[in-house]
Amino acid sequence: MGKIRHYEGDGIRVAYDAERCIHAAECVHGLPEVFDPNRRPWIEAGAASADDLAAVVRRCPTGALTYARLDGQPEERPSSTNELRIAEDGPVHARGALVLLDAEHREVRRETRAAFCRCGASENKPYCDGRHAEAGFSDSGVIGNPTIRPPGEDDSRDLTVRLRPDGPLVLEGRFTVTASDGEPVHGSSGALCRCGASKNKPFCDGTHREIDFEADDPSAG
Questions:
Q1: How confident is the model at residue 3 (pLDDT cuts 50, 70, 90)?
Q2: Which of 46, 126, 182, 190 is the most exposed place for a label (fewest CB within 10 A)?
């Protein structure tokens, strides 16, 4: 994890992790008086109410922006369902009760929003850093053969995302994978490709072993 900067407003503190920002610009479009990339500092947290600021921060798809309420109001809650949206030629956008685990099943962190790399080129694995464009990653984001286990009644509400060494993201817990064309697939266990070479994207097919993929997850250390 890179250096996180904090910006305090009236009843709220906004945190920004630049290494997780891929410039989706939801914040700039939502509150341009607060978020202005041409200004220094680029976040003026006092330029909007705490409620309005919190609402726009929750639109950040990568988790680069988060907030803490200083006025006693509720903190951000996970969405009611765990959803993984596959971006065409881009990352997996995840929302929900996300629990990131390292290779030894130790909890790294809990979060509500993240963008996970699936091209293999990010230097901030397991998160996307925008390098899929310069790497020439190409994938329609359409689901082919969904190699996941269907959901069951006893599945966990939390979605654990385990970093298999030099391999996929292993998912456990109730979730929905939504393709770029809007087609959803529901599951409770599966593995998402993050080497960029699977022939069954977005799911892992074991190709990472053939190409000697190295994950080197620095942000999960």
A1: confident
A2: 182
Report d(CA 116, CA 92) in Å as an integer.
Answer: 5
What pLDDT, in 10s, does the model give residues 70-114? 999 999 999 999 999 999 999 999 999 999 999 999 999 999 999
Summarize pLDDT for 126-166 with one digit per residue, the tens: 999 999 999 999 999 999 888 898 887 767 789 999 999 99
Q: DSSP state, 128?
A: -
Which amino acid is present at 181? D
| Listed residue (94, 111, 98, 130) closest to 19, CA to CA | 130
The CATH code that applies to domain 4-69 is 3.30.70.20
Enumerate the domain spans of the chain: 4-69, 83-220
Whether 15 and 27 have beta carbons less than 8 Å apart is answered as: no
The encoded tokens of residue 160 equal: 């654990």
Closest to 218 in 3D by CA, of 117, 82, 119: 117
Structure tokens at 131: 């390098």
Burial of 19 (0-12, 13-18, 19+ CB in 10 A): middle
Q: Regarding beta strands 92-101 and 65-69, do their DSSP bridges make them parallel or antiparallel, or are they unpaired?
A: unpaired
- CB-based contacts of 66-74 (< 8 A; 24+ apart in sequence): 66/14, 66/15, 66/17, 66/111, 67/12, 67/13, 67/14, 67/15, 68/12, 68/13, 68/15, 69/11, 69/12, 70/8, 70/11, 70/12, 70/13, 71/10, 71/11, 71/12, 73/11
